[in-house]
């Protein structure tokens, strides 16, 4: 019998044996929690008006979604999240909009241990299948393999990432205190680069195309943006750490992001309009470098 055909309870029992511990949900901002998370997510995920979206038509032209870029996967997974207070794939606090990674100046970094490592505790809800947990773990390992960041199962730490499959892929920017939601929907978010993208948000990184110096590299074509989504292109006061603008960052959206008709570009490279951007499927060399500069160097 294939894994997907087994009764869900049996699959869940299997994932629960994988040393992932569900954490408390009590510290989540209430607007982001839609009732208790249960194993029966299939009945909870809502998809509205899927067939009429220009984006949907574009995605369906791909036969293998592993070939899609992280930017494309995120947009597809997050199409209907407006009511969840999600800005693109960045969750917004009801108290304050901590969407600028300048939050690193006011304490949203994860602390570094005296041994030089940065341990980021996490808990994973028990509704993932083992193959899905492997994707999450693989993305976490990619950080520890190349930087001082180590994602560690939560024991009793106060601050931790609580990874759950709610509708959509999104995260807060930086450490915000307590258990903070990272939504990695089983429907569309469980790809290596997509998990890396959300973990980078949780570490304090914002979108590359929102960098304070982006106008020298990207022109935003406001007239082509879907009405109501212009905020996804607002510049933020980012701390760029003297790193070059990175068209191949996994944090860069693509040229058709939030396009009103699915074909009119919303961004173009400048001065070289032919330069490619937003095509990443995993962290770039400069994404790794930025993590090291922010967390691992003295
Ligand atoms: Zn994002």
UniProtKB/TrEMBL annotation:
Organism: Betta splendens
Basic and acidic residues composition-biased segments: 1-12, 41-50
UniProt protein name: Metalloendopeptidase
Domain Peptidase M12A: 99-297
Record has Metal-binding as a keyword: yes
PANTHER family: DISCOIDIN, CUB, EGF, LAMININ , AND ZINC METALLOPROTEASE DOMAIN CONTAINING, METALLOENDOPEPTIDASE
UniProt KW Iron keyword: no
InterPro entries to which the protein is assigned, alphabetical: MetalloPept_cat_dom_sf, Peptidase_M12A, Peptidase_Metallo
